[in-house]
């Protein structure tokens, strides 16, 4: 079960088989079906612009569509993406692309009567009316080609909103499985999750550029859960190839300005003297480029400041991203060529990562810290390894799967605690045993995502518990055969 990607295939088959035979009706006659996506419009737009959906699509009228150029993310009013190039049934067309959660948003947002949307070449959406077709038209009543995105492409984990956890019906069958059988289940689910991340990075690389895919992935890992999308958008609005052409202070001005952290108000606060010097350096570069970079209020990046540790303040995350770009030539080989002991190499890189301002400050206006502050902590390091570096490297070297299995756990969080309680109930020993390594935590999250979060019956009609006996039977048979 340790080989890659055979364990992932085993879990994928098990997962598909459960849902194909396990969707049932409850006592009220309601069918328990997977939940709809809860992503925000900006999250979908970030995934689109990052290339996660690929470049080739079929329009709602059967058109063969290829995105030749994703264009630019519009920073002002008007269509979401401008200067795009789209090949529709072999004909190359240029113009804006608009992306909405619901196809009807085109009219409800007033785009159909807005001259700024007249030249739109493509309307992308995720949802629409179930019975009637909705057509997208311009001010001149020109029909605009539509593309509906797949609902669950490259899912990246449980959504931020999670129902209250309670011990699930799978506690009993899991308790009847020995440790090896449970370990095989978590290992397979983890390998499936890792493989999905590899596929996502490969699609992004093909759609944009391998270096940009790596850059966005690392930015997302730095943002953690609360600011993952915000950091992804920042990486898209400040492409790595453009940043690498700038000197250090210009690069930081671009990042902090695009993030929305440089404005007049910041100078009117009681920032310390050292902070004022740094801010002045940034501002001296920022005012020259802000007219072409700064987004309008509507398109400002939505940062989350609540619930974060001081070391994880969004401004420190942007500072860490700037430091990563500064040392990019040392990081890039880890992505491009296999190395022995990948975790050690990345750990040494992170330990040596420094910034004259950010190793002593929590925010742009905070007092200096009495002690040096690491730009990237141990948990962020392991998430960078688990979510970006290993998924990227394993696509070229499958043998590092065994190295991935030795990666230690990250600190528990709300999602992991809920997943552990749902699957293992109050059994603290098993919770501890099966969350000691990163891959075990990832396996738990994958199972919780695939079944607990897809079930609408509060566990009572989820097909997973009954089918665990089949996994147990297959695991025992494989062990006997071995």
Give a written overview of the molecule.
There is one protein chain. With 482 residues, the chain is an alpha/beta fold. Among the domains are: 54-148, no CATH class; 223-375, no CATH class. Helix content is 48%, strand content 8%. It contains 20 helices and seven strands. It has helices at residues 6-22, 41-49, 105-108, 171-175, 179-207, 210-223, 228-237, 240-243, 248-259, 264-268, 273-293, 314-326, 328-336, 342-351, 378-394, 401-404, 414-424, 428-433, 438-452, 464-481; strands at residues 56-58, 64-69, 72-73, 81-88, 91-102, 122-127, 146-148. Strands 1, 2, 3, 4, 5, 6 and 7 form a seven-stranded mixed beta sheet that branches. The radius of gyration is 24 Å and the shape is globular.
Topology summary:
Elements: H1 6-22, H2 41-49, E1 56-58, E2 64-69, E3 72-73, E4 81-88, E5 91-102, H3 105-108, E6 122-127, E7 146-148, H4 171-175, H5 179-207, H6 210-223, H7 228-237, H8 240-243, H9 248-259, H10 264-268, H11 273-293, H12 314-326, H13 328-336, H14 342-351, H15 378-394, H16 401-404, H17 414-424, H18 428-433, H19 438-452, H20 464-481
Parallel strand pairs: 5-6, 6-7
Antiparallel strand pairs: 1-2, 2-4, 3-4, 4-5
Helix pairs in contact: 1-5, 2-7, 5-6, 5-15, 5-19, 5-20, 6-7, 6-12, 6-15, 9-11, 9-12, 14-15, 17-19
């Amino acid at each position: 079960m340790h080989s890659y990607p055979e364990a992932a295939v085993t879990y994928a088959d098990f997962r598909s088989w459960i849902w194909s035979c396990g969707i049932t009706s409850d006592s009220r006659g309601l069918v328990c079906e997977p939940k709809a996506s809860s992503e925000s419009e900006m999250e979908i737009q970030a995934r689109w612009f990052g290339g996660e959906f690929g470049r080739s699509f079929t329009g709602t009228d059967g058109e063969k569509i290829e995105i030749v150029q994703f264009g630019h993310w519009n920073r002002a009013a008007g269509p979401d993406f401008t200067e795009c190039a789209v090949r529709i049934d072999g004909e190359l067309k240029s113009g804006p692309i608009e992306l909405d959660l619901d196809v009807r948003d085109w009219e409800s947002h007033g785009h159909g009567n807005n001259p700024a949307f007249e030249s739109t070449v493509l309307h992308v959406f995720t949802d629409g009316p179930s019975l009637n077709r909705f057509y997208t038209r311009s001010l001149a009543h020109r029909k605009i080609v539509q593309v509906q995105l797949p609902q669950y492409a490259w899912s990246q984990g449980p959504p931020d909103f999670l129902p209250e956890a309670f011990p699930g019906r799978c506690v009993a069958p899991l308790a009847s499985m020995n440790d090896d059988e449970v370990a095989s289940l978590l290992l397979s689910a983890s390998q499936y999750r890792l493989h999905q991340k590899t596929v996502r990075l490969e699609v992004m690389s093909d759609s944009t550029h391998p270096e940009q895919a790596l850059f966005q992935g690392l930015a997302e890992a730095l943002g953690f859960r609360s600011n993952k999308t915000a950091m992804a958008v920042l990486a898209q609005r400040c492409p790595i190839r453009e940043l690498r052409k700038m000197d250090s202070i210009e690069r930081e001005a671009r990042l902090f300005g695009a993030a929305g952290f440089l404005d007049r108000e910041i100078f009117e606060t009681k920032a310390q003297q050292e902070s004022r010097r740094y801010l002045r350096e940034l501002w001296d570069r920022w005012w020259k480029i802000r007219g072409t970079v700064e987004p309008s209020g509507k398109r400002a990046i939505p940062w989350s400041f609540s619930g974060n540790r001081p070391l994880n303040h969004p401004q420190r995350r942007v500072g860490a991203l700037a430091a990563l770009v500064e040392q990019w030539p040392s990081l890039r080989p880890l992505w491009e060529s296999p190395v022995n002991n990948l975790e050690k190499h990345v750990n040494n890189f992170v330990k040596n990562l420094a910034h004259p301002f950010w190793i002593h400050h929590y925010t742009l206006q905070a007092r200096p810290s009495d002690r040096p502050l690491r730009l990237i902590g141990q948990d962020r390091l392991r998430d960078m390894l688990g979510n970006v570096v290993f998924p990227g490297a394993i696509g070229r070297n499958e043998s590092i799967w065994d190295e991935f299995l030795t990666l230690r756990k990250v600190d528990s969080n709300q999602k992991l605690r809920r997943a552990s309680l749902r699957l293992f109930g109050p059994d603290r020993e098993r919770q501890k045993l099966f969350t000691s390594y990163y891959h075990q935590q990832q396996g738990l999250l994958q199972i919780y995502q695939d079944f607990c979060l897809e079930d609408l019956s509060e566990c009572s009609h989820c097909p997973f518990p009954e089918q665990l006996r089949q996994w147990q039977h297959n695991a025992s048979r494989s062990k006997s055969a071995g």
